[in-house]
Design brief:
Structural class: mainly alpha
Number of strands: 0
Helix content: 40-55%
Strand content: under 5%
Order of helices and strands: HH
Largest sheet: none
């Protein structure tokens, strides 16, 4: 069963970034690395490595 969670906060005092940082710092290092890899795969596909792209520009 899914429970609804509501949190009331004063927007002048509340800082989402600080709360997010505290959460991720409390997680084990392996979990943080796996999460970054998961987000990378969502953004760039399931390739093992990011593609390298080079562009040569001729200057006149």
């Amino acid at each position: 069963m899914i429970q609804k969670v509501i949190q009331k906060r004063n927007l002048r005092i509340f800082s989402q970034a600080k709360e997010d940082l505290a959460y991720w710092l409390s997680r084990p290092q392996e979990e943080r690395v796996l999460t970054v890899d998961y987000l990378r795969r969502q953004q760039h596909g399931s390739t093992a490595r990011l593609q390298r792209v080079a562009r040569v520009v001729q200057r006149s």
